[in-house]
Amino acid sequence: MLHNGYFAPLKLIYKEIWKYKDISKIKGKTPNYTIQERVQRDPQFTRIGLGIYALTDYLSKLKQTETPKNKKEKTEFRHTKIQGMLLEIGSVEQYDTYTPDRSKKFDGKPLNAISTLKECPNFTFKEIINHSVKYIDVIWFNERSFPCRVFEVEDSTDFRGAFVKFTELQDFMTQFSIIAPETREEKYQREIRKKAFKNIKERCKFISYGVVEEYYQAVLNYDKAKKLF
Protein backbone atom coordinates (compact mmCIF):
# COMPACT_ATOMS: atom_id res chain seq x y z
CA MET A 1 0.00 0.00 0.00
CA LEU A 2 2.87 2.36 0.78
CA HIS A 3 4.32 1.82 -2.67
CA ASN A 4 0.94 2.32 -4.35
CA GLY A 5 0.13 5.68 -2.77
CA TYR A 6 -1.08 4.50 0.68
CA PHE A 7 -3.93 2.36 -0.68
CA ALA A 8 -4.57 -0.53 -3.05
CA PRO A 9 -7.35 -2.69 -4.48
CA LEU A 10 -7.56 -6.19 -3.01
CA LYS A 11 -6.78 -7.70 -6.41
CA LEU A 12 -3.47 -5.84 -6.47
CA ILE A 13 -2.67 -6.80 -2.86
CA TYR A 14 -3.22 -10.47 -3.72
CA LYS A 15 -0.69 -10.16 -6.55
CA GLU A 16 1.96 -7.99 -4.90
CA ILE A 17 2.05 -9.37 -1.35
CA TRP A 18 4.40 -12.18 -2.35
CA LYS A 19 7.12 -9.63 -2.98
CA TYR A 20 7.14 -9.16 0.80
CA LYS A 21 5.95 -12.54 2.11
CA ASP A 22 7.41 -16.02 1.59
CA ILE A 23 4.58 -18.04 0.05
CA SER A 24 6.29 -21.31 1.04
CA LYS A 25 5.71 -20.44 4.70
CA ILE A 26 1.97 -19.95 4.27
CA LYS A 27 0.10 -22.94 5.68
CA GLY A 28 -3.46 -22.05 4.78
CA LYS A 29 -5.02 -23.03 1.46
CA THR A 30 -6.87 -19.74 1.00
CA PRO A 31 -4.34 -16.91 1.48
CA ASN A 32 -6.49 -14.42 -0.47
CA TYR A 33 -9.38 -14.99 1.93
CA THR A 34 -7.02 -14.48 4.88
CA ILE A 35 -5.80 -11.19 3.37
CA GLN A 36 -9.37 -10.03 2.80
CA GLU A 37 -10.35 -10.85 6.37
CA ARG A 38 -7.33 -8.98 7.70
CA VAL A 39 -7.94 -5.71 5.86
CA GLN A 40 -11.65 -5.82 6.68
CA ARG A 41 -11.23 -6.34 10.42
CA ASP A 42 -7.90 -4.73 11.31
CA PRO A 43 -8.23 -1.02 12.25
CA GLN A 44 -4.87 -0.39 10.54
CA PHE A 45 -6.85 -0.49 7.28
CA THR A 46 -9.83 1.57 6.10
CA ARG A 47 -12.02 0.89 3.10
CA ILE A 48 -12.09 3.88 0.74
CA GLY A 49 -13.85 2.37 -2.27
CA LEU A 50 -15.23 -0.79 -3.81
CA GLY A 51 -12.62 -3.37 -2.83
CA ILE A 52 -10.13 -0.56 -2.14
CA TYR A 53 -8.33 -0.32 1.21
CA ALA A 54 -5.99 2.33 2.61
CA LEU A 55 -3.58 2.54 5.51
CA THR A 56 -5.59 4.29 8.22
CA ASP A 57 -2.63 6.32 9.50
CA TYR A 58 -2.12 7.79 6.02
CA LEU A 59 -5.69 8.78 5.17
CA SER A 60 -4.80 12.45 5.54
CA LYS A 61 -2.34 12.10 2.66
CA LEU A 62 -5.08 11.10 0.25
CA LYS A 63 -6.21 14.40 -1.22
CA GLN A 64 -9.81 14.56 -2.38
CA THR A 65 -10.62 15.56 -5.92
CA GLU A 66 -11.44 19.25 -6.23
CA THR A 67 -15.06 20.18 -6.91
CA PRO A 68 -15.58 21.05 -10.61
CA LYS A 69 -16.30 24.74 -11.18
CA ASN A 70 -17.58 24.94 -14.76
CA LYS A 71 -19.29 22.83 -17.42
CA LYS A 72 -16.03 21.54 -18.91
CA GLU A 73 -14.69 20.52 -15.50
CA LYS A 74 -17.99 18.84 -14.60
CA THR A 75 -17.89 16.81 -17.81
CA GLU A 76 -14.30 15.73 -17.17
CA PHE A 77 -15.14 15.01 -13.52
CA ARG A 78 -17.95 12.62 -14.42
CA HIS A 79 -15.88 10.98 -17.16
CA THR A 80 -13.14 10.21 -14.62
CA LYS A 81 -15.69 9.12 -12.03
CA ILE A 82 -17.12 6.53 -14.44
CA GLN A 83 -13.62 5.29 -15.29
CA GLY A 84 -12.84 4.89 -11.59
CA MET A 85 -16.05 2.99 -10.96
CA LEU A 86 -15.37 0.64 -13.87
CA LEU A 87 -11.87 -0.05 -12.57
CA GLU A 88 -13.13 -0.83 -9.07
CA ILE A 89 -15.99 -3.00 -10.35
CA GLY A 90 -13.61 -4.94 -12.61
CA SER A 91 -11.21 -5.60 -9.74
CA VAL A 92 -14.04 -6.85 -7.51
CA GLU A 93 -15.12 -9.13 -10.37
CA GLN A 94 -11.60 -10.61 -10.22
CA TYR A 95 -10.30 -9.13 -13.47
CA ASP A 96 -7.00 -7.34 -13.85
CA THR A 97 -7.74 -3.75 -14.82
CA TYR A 98 -5.96 -1.18 -16.96
CA THR A 99 -6.42 2.47 -17.93
CA PRO A 100 -4.12 4.80 -19.88
CA ASP A 101 -5.13 7.75 -17.68
CA ARG A 102 -2.49 7.86 -14.95
CA SER A 103 -3.04 11.12 -13.10
CA LYS A 104 -6.82 11.66 -13.10
CA LYS A 105 -8.47 11.03 -9.75
CA PHE A 106 -11.67 9.35 -8.57
CA ASP A 107 -12.54 10.20 -4.95
CA GLY A 108 -8.98 11.37 -4.42
CA LYS A 109 -7.51 8.12 -5.77
CA PRO A 110 -5.34 8.31 -8.94
CA LEU A 111 -6.79 5.98 -11.58
CA ASN A 112 -3.37 4.45 -12.14
CA ALA A 113 -3.29 3.37 -8.49
CA ILE A 114 -6.81 1.90 -8.66
CA SER A 115 -5.93 -0.24 -11.68
CA THR A 116 -4.11 -3.51 -11.04
CA LEU A 117 -1.97 -3.21 -14.19
CA LYS A 118 0.38 -0.30 -14.84
CA GLU A 119 1.03 -1.29 -18.46
CA CYS A 120 -1.18 -2.88 -21.10
CA PRO A 121 -0.22 -6.59 -21.50
CA ASN A 122 1.40 -7.60 -24.79
CA PHE A 123 -1.30 -10.07 -25.74
CA THR A 124 -1.02 -9.49 -29.51
CA PHE A 125 1.04 -7.58 -32.11
CA LYS A 126 2.70 -4.50 -30.61
CA GLU A 127 1.50 -2.20 -33.39
CA ILE A 128 -2.13 -3.02 -32.54
CA ILE A 129 -1.57 -2.40 -28.84
CA ASN A 130 0.58 0.72 -29.23
CA HIS A 131 -1.50 2.41 -31.94
CA SER A 132 -4.95 1.70 -30.57
CA VAL A 133 -5.76 -0.75 -27.78
CA LYS A 134 -3.69 0.78 -24.98
CA TYR A 135 -5.64 4.05 -25.37
CA ILE A 136 -9.01 2.47 -24.54
CA ASP A 137 -10.41 4.10 -21.39
CA VAL A 138 -10.79 0.92 -19.30
CA ILE A 139 -9.90 -2.70 -20.04
CA TRP A 140 -10.63 -5.81 -17.98
CA PHE A 141 -8.16 -8.65 -18.56
CA ASN A 142 -8.83 -12.28 -17.74
CA GLU A 143 -6.45 -14.64 -15.92
CA ARG A 144 -4.61 -15.36 -19.20
CA SER A 145 -4.02 -11.61 -19.78
CA PHE A 146 -6.42 -11.35 -22.71
CA PRO A 147 -8.93 -8.47 -22.90
CA CYS A 148 -12.28 -9.77 -21.71
CA ARG A 149 -14.22 -6.49 -21.65
CA VAL A 150 -13.31 -3.03 -22.90
CA PHE A 151 -15.03 0.27 -22.14
CA GLU A 152 -14.91 3.63 -23.88
CA VAL A 153 -16.45 6.54 -21.96
CA GLU A 154 -17.92 8.92 -24.53
CA ASP A 155 -19.21 12.34 -23.46
CA SER A 156 -19.59 14.13 -26.79
CA THR A 157 -17.75 12.39 -29.67
CA ASP A 158 -19.43 10.63 -32.61
CA PHE A 159 -18.35 7.18 -31.26
CA ARG A 160 -16.39 6.34 -34.41
CA GLY A 161 -13.00 6.58 -32.73
CA ALA A 162 -14.17 4.11 -30.09
CA PHE A 163 -15.55 1.73 -32.71
CA VAL A 164 -12.24 1.77 -34.60
CA LYS A 165 -10.43 0.73 -31.40
CA PHE A 166 -12.97 -2.04 -30.87
CA THR A 167 -12.52 -3.26 -34.44
CA GLU A 168 -8.84 -3.90 -33.71
CA LEU A 169 -10.01 -6.51 -31.19
CA GLN A 170 -12.65 -8.21 -33.35
CA ASP A 171 -10.57 -11.42 -33.58
CA PHE A 172 -10.62 -11.84 -29.80
CA MET A 173 -13.51 -12.96 -27.60
CA THR A 174 -13.86 -9.45 -26.23
CA GLN A 175 -17.06 -7.66 -25.21
CA PHE A 176 -17.28 -4.01 -26.27
CA SER A 177 -19.09 -1.38 -24.21
CA ILE A 178 -19.78 2.29 -24.86
CA ILE A 179 -20.51 4.25 -21.69
CA ALA A 180 -22.26 7.56 -22.30
CA PRO A 181 -25.10 9.82 -21.14
CA GLU A 182 -28.49 8.21 -21.75
CA THR A 183 -29.41 11.03 -24.15
CA ARG A 184 -26.70 9.86 -26.57
CA GLU A 185 -28.06 6.37 -27.19
CA GLU A 186 -29.91 7.36 -30.36
CA LYS A 187 -26.67 8.75 -31.82
CA TYR A 188 -24.88 5.54 -30.84
CA GLN A 189 -27.51 3.40 -32.61
CA ARG A 190 -27.14 5.40 -35.83
CA GLU A 191 -23.36 5.06 -35.85
CA ILE A 192 -23.09 1.37 -34.93
CA ARG A 193 -25.40 0.43 -37.81
CA LYS A 194 -22.94 1.74 -40.40
CA LYS A 195 -21.34 -0.91 -42.63
CA ALA A 196 -17.82 -0.12 -41.42
CA PHE A 197 -18.73 -1.52 -38.00
CA LYS A 198 -20.83 -4.54 -39.00
CA ASN A 199 -18.27 -6.99 -37.58
CA ILE A 200 -18.59 -5.60 -34.05
CA LYS A 201 -22.22 -4.47 -34.04
CA GLU A 202 -23.62 -7.55 -32.27
CA ARG A 203 -20.83 -7.56 -29.70
CA CYS A 204 -21.09 -3.88 -28.80
CA LYS A 205 -23.32 -2.62 -25.99
CA PHE A 206 -24.50 0.83 -24.95
CA ILE A 207 -24.54 1.45 -21.19
CA SER A 208 -25.63 4.75 -19.70
CA TYR A 209 -23.73 6.65 -17.02
CA GLY A 210 -26.68 6.17 -14.70
CA VAL A 211 -26.56 2.37 -15.00
CA VAL A 212 -22.85 2.29 -14.09
CA GLU A 213 -23.40 4.57 -11.11
CA GLU A 214 -26.42 2.56 -9.94
CA TYR A 215 -24.54 -0.73 -10.26
CA TYR A 216 -21.53 0.64 -8.39
CA GLN A 217 -23.68 1.86 -5.50
CA ALA A 218 -25.62 -1.43 -5.37
CA VAL A 219 -22.41 -3.46 -5.03
CA LEU A 220 -21.01 -0.98 -2.51
CA ASN A 221 -24.17 -1.12 -0.40
CA TYR A 222 -24.30 -4.92 -0.62
CA ASP A 223 -20.74 -5.13 0.65
CA LYS A 224 -21.66 -2.85 3.56
CA ALA A 225 -24.77 -4.90 4.32
CA LYS A 226 -22.81 -8.16 4.52
CA LYS A 227 -20.87 -6.80 7.48
CA LEU A 228 -24.06 -6.55 9.51
CA PHE A 229 -24.43 -10.35 9.71
Descriptive account of the structure:
The chain has 229 residues and is an alpha+beta fold. It contains 8 helices and 10 strands. α3 packs across α8. The two termini are 28 Å apart.
The gist of it:
Helices cover 37% and strands 18% of the residues.
Notable traits:
229 residues; globular
Q: Secondary structure elements and their pairing?
A:
Blueprint: E1 7-9, H1 10-16, H2 31-41, E2 45-49, E3 52-55, H3 71-92, E4 96-98, E5 105-106, E6 109-110, H4 111-114, H5 126-131, E7 138-141, E8 147-153, H6 160-167, E9 175-180, H7 185-192, E10 204-208, H8 209-226
Parallel strand pairs: 8-9, 9-10
Antiparallel strand pairs: 1-3, 2-3, 4-7, 5-6, 7-8
Helix pairs in contact: 3-8
Q: Got a strand count?
A: 10
Percentage of residues in DSSP E strands: 15-25%
* Silhouette: globular
| Total helical segments | 8
Strand count, sense and barrel status of the largest sheet are: 5 strands, mixed
Instruction: Compute the number of structural domains.
Output: 2
